[in-house]
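A reminder from the course coordinator: this example appears on the midterm review sheet, so study it carefully.

Given structure:
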């Protein structure tokens, strides 16, 4: 026998009461629905003789309300939904009582409780979170694409490895393998020639798990995914199989790495969330930005420098994170390139995914810290035609192709450089704090320690 879906309805006073009752009757007539209660969320224009207090008797349903009918009772919605063990919150309200921003806030709060949020033409489902890991774990996710998630993941993995926690990384990407792929970054030498061989076999050798393996020198497991919903759900992924492999391999700690704004569908003990200061502020403060931020034990703000973000914007983001999630540690950072091999005294062609607007800062850092001469740069690792044009423009003046392991780094940048007789050096991106009082490494290890304690206490 199929169990009934327990449904909580949100109603307002902008509808005539008989109309609201008709909608409730329609829902109640569905064989798979059990109406458990309603929450009155505002508006009194069309209540006429009725009052919020009398709605329950007239609608034949328990109705909850707050005395201030001009404010959305967010906390009340959550409390009633949890108390009644609702499976679904159905929103029967409308403007002017609620607008888009308010609905996204309701959605975030309801979805945090693992409850669906639906309306006449929308349905938001809680994230899949398979509880299958048999080791302590953390998840690294982000509020968007191109905000440095893989760089931070590789940095964190390297740090965790140095602290003798023996981690592995499970990463999903849009170019990942059909079956979860183990890369023994701790055992094999990942050279440009080796990556070219993988690329020629049809492997996407610049996928995130290859970057993690190269930068961190640990075991990684590569997975694929397609699609990315607003909340972070993916349409298909083999990350569940990847997590099961993580249970079997020789590691003691698991890092689940997100892709873009997509969130790994695997339950972990703790979370590190990246917020790009270069993102539109509305994507951080509205929609499902707050949902992601609330997950954070450690919130790392990236790209915290001009021209990508003004100091005022960085401050606003930090204050917003602290307001939404006061328990999280918040650390603003910038990225700086770090060649994996020496480029001392060499002429460098630098390929990156960083925007062209920041290239002068990166060039200055490379030349001053690594004693090289940057003869050309290209920000087009994710645009193959433009990347090839830039390579042809500068390749005759360079000794070394210095490239991040992203997108077309292997099948275009590495291939063209090797064919031209250039040395190829891969480049890491290191997150650096912008304030002396912030300590990124201890903050990451603190999350790890808490994850281990959480796991042990289960």
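Designed residues:
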């Amino acid at each position: 026998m199929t169990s009934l879906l327990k449904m909580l309805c949100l109603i307002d006073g902008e509808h005539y009461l008989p109309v609201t009752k008709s909608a409730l009757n329609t829902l109640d007539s569905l064989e798979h629905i059990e109406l458990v209660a309603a929450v009155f969320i505002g508006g009194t224009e069309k209540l006429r003789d009725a009052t919020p207090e009398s709605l329950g008797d007239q609608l034949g349903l328990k109705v909850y309300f707050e005395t201030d009918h001009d404010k959305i009772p967010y906390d009340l919605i959550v409390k009633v939904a949890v108390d009644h063990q609702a499976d679904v919150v159905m929103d029967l309200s409308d403007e002017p009582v609620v607008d888009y921003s308010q609905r996204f806030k309701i959605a975030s709060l309801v979805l945090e409780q693992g409850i669906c949020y639906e309306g006449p033409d929308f349905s938001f489902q809680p994230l899949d979170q398979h509880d299958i890991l048999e080791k302590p774990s953390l998840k690294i996710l982000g509020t968007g694409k191109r905000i440095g998630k893989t760089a931070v993941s590789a940095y964190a993995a390297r740090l965790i490895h140095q602290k003798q926690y023996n981690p592995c990384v499970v990463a999903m990407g849009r170019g990942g393998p059909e079956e979860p792929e183990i890369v023994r970054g701790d055992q094999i030498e990942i050279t440009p020639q080796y990556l070219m061989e993988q690329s020629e076999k049809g492997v996407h050798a610049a996928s995130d798990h290859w970057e993690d393996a190269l930068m961190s020198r640990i075991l990684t497991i590569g997975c694929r995914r397609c699609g990315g919903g607003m909340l972070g759900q993916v349409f298909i992924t083999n990350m569940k199989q990847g997590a099961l492999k993580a249970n079997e391999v020789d590691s003691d700690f698991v890092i689940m790495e997100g892709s873009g704004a997509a969130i790994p569908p695997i339950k972990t003990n703790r979370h590190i969330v990246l917020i790009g200061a270069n993102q539109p502020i509305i994507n951080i403060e509205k929609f499902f930005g707050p949902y992601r931020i609330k997950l954070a034990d450690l919130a790392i703000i990236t790209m915290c420098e001009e021209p990508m973000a003004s100091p005022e914007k960085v401050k606003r983001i930090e204050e917003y994170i602290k307001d939404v999630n006061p328990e999280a540690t918040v650390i603003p950072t910038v990225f700086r390139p770090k060649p994996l091999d020496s480029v001392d005294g060499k002429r460098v062609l630098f390929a990156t995914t960083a925007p062209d607007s920041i290239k002068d800062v990166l060039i200055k850092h490379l030349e001053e810290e690594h004693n090289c001469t940057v003869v050309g740069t290209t920000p087009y690792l994710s645009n193959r035609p433009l990347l090839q044009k830039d390579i042809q423009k500068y390749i005759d003046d360079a000794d070394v192709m210095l490239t991040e392991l992203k997108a077309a780094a292997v099948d275009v940048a590495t291939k063209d450089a090797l064919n031209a007789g250039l040395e190829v050096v891969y480049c890491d991106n290191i997150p650096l704090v912008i304030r002396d009082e912030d300590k990124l490494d201890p903050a990451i290890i603190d999350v790890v320690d808490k994850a281990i304690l959480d796991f042990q206490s289960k």
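Residues 336 and 362 are 7 Å apart (CA to CA). Residues 440-456 form the longest helix (17 residues).
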